[in-house]
């Protein structure tokens, strides 16, 4: 899955239960009946390492996703970068957070907040900023670039390992194993795979099994940039929606990945719930601004103000916190409005 290149991250985390509010509103307890805007809340905000730093067994030679064989001899200074923040999330969850020397703009969890950013535009690497940090290994995927920057890092003697950039639930274990192998910590990698698999399985089991599942449309909106897209098959949002027992409305009307939002398409999709990222919702001035976009007010979700927003740095990350993200989304969507 390739996400639009404008994803930014700032955790919107409200301890406790799902709240019936939009960005900027004062949180209040969700009503026992009735529907309205809701924020998907994650009470455990940070990464949770499976163990303290286990130490690396090096050197190792691994297959990079670009077909190159790469030998990693030193993993003492790690730079994990991609568009989703998932690589850094996995590195920290392996217990290697103290080795990380920089971050991308999508890495927003508290444990990494102090690190310098090496992707000033969101998806382009600053080679100069990276070289100043003197990493011994760079972990990335094809969501980040430009490719020449990665080649330049390799020519400078840095081990650069690319991970496959498929952002799906099924790909999460493979990503963990690839990153753990490159850093010489395969055993903690297997423990993290087991934990993430168990959390995803438990979250999916909590989904309702109604014969008439909710239809959810994911909208990627950036009002400040005039970007309005609807997700469909392969967008990543479809995986999260199916994981909570709902139907992805974009997929149902034949959309693939992300397509420009049209009033006709949205009305045809007829979503019961509209899902957005928290910063996207803020960029259109909250729920009222979203409902003012063409077509949204004519959908069941618009008429009932069933808007769910979730943190930019968690919803489509597909990293080590994926199970918690699914559970939070399920609670927000299937809570008091079910």
H/E topology pattern: EEEEHHEHEHHEEHEHEHEHHHEH
Largest sheet: 7 strands, mixed
Shape: globular
Low-confidence stretches: 5-34
- Output the structural class: alpha/beta
Structure commentary:
The protein has two domains: 60-201, Rossmann fold (3-Layer(aba) Sandwich), CATH 3.40.50.1980; 210-334, 3-Layer(aba) Sandwich (Rossmann fold), CATH 3.40.50.1980. 31% of the residues lie in helices and 14% in strands. It contains twelve helices and twelve strands. Strands 1, 7, 8, 9, 10, 11 and 12 form a seven-stranded mixed beta sheet that branches. A three-stranded parallel beta sheet has the order 4-5-6. The protein has a two-stranded antiparallel ribbon with strand order 2-3. Strand 7 and strand 8 (227-231) form a beta hairpin. Helix 1 (86-96) crosses helix 4 (172-182). The longest helix has 20 residues, at 186-205. It starts with 37 loop residues before the first strand and ends with a helix. Mean pLDDT is 86; it is low at 5-34.
Topology:
Blueprint: E1 38-39, E2 60-63, E3 69-72, E4 78-80, H1 86-96, H2 127-133, E5 137-140, H3 147-155, E6 159-162, H4 172-182, H5 186-205, E7 215-222, E8 227-231, H6 237-243, E9 247-248, H7 249-252, E10 258-260, H8 263-269, E11 273-277, H9 278-283, H10 286-291, H11 300-304, E12 307-310, H12 322-334
Helix pairs in contact: 1-4, 4-5, 5-12
